[in-house]
């Protein structure tokens, strides 16, 4: 007996550790991508409409995943183990933001923006799988270029980098104050 396609969809989404791209879902479901997209959209709509369901289907980081409904967060957070949370320092968040907005970017370019050495912070972001090397810059010394990873998109619940908020302009006179003190 062949299982219902929606049951297979639900099972693979439930079991997946990372978002699953539509093409991969189509392969697993043994159907054309357009048909798989229709199934995904119908399933997502059913989950959204049924208040008895605790999960929803979201598109993030170029794929699809099941996640708990935001209104159920108070109950879900009671299960989280503090040692499993990813904690990023202010320096790491600053470095990550520079990579996200300026990628591909070299370590020297990151340090020019931050004004401090950043190789340790950058290495930590690589270890957490949030940034990765993206080739070499055609410049003297051929420095490594860095970019964000799909895990970055997943962690921040972004479908693509285009969903990043627009950076705020510095307050008027900030550049003059910085150059006068530095």
UniProtKB/TrEMBL annotation:
UniProt-recorded name of the protein? Segregation and condensation protein B
Q: Source species, please?
A: Limnochorda pilosa
Note the superkingdom of the native organism.
Bacteria
**Which InterPro entries would you find in this protein's record?**
ScpB_csome_segregation, WH-like_DNA-bd_sf, WH_DNA-bd_sf
Which Pfam families does the record associate with it?
A: SMC_ScpB (PF04079)
Q: Which UniProt keywords apply?
A: Cell cycle, Cell division, Chromosome partition, Cytoplasm
Compositional bias (Low complexity) at which positions? Answer: 171-182
Sorted alphabetically, the Gene Ontology BP terms of this entry are: cell division; chromosome separation
The keyword Zinc belongs to this UniProt entry's keyword annotation: no
Annotated region Disordered: where?
163-182
Keyword Cytoplasm present in the record's keywords: the answer is yes
Gene3D superfamilies registered for this protein in UniProt: Winged helix-like DNA-binding domain superfamily/Winged helix DNA-binding domain
């Amino acid at each position: 007996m062949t299982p219902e396609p929606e049951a297979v969809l639900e099972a693979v989404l439930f079991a997946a550790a990372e978002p699953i791209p539509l093409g991969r879902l189509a392969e697993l479901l043994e159907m054309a991508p357009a048909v798989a997209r229709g199934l995904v959209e119908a399933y997502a709509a059913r989950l959204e409409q049924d208040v008895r369901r605790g999960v929803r289907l979201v598109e993030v980081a170029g794929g699809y995943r099941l996640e708990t409904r935001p209104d159920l967060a108070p109950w879900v957070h009671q299960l989280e183990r503090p040692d499993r949370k990813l904690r990023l320092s202010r320096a790491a968040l600053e470095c990550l933001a520079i990579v996200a907005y300026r990628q591909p970017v070299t370590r020297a370019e990151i340090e020019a923006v931050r004004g401090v050495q950043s190789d340790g912070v950058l290495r930590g972001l690589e270890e957490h799988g949030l940034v990765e090397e993206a080739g070499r810059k055609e410049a003297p010394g051929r420095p490594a270029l860095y970019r964000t990873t799909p895990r970055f998109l997943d962690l921040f619940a972004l479908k693509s980098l285009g969903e990043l908020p627009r950076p705020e302009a510095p307050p008027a006179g900030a550049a003059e104050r910085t150059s006068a003190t530095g």
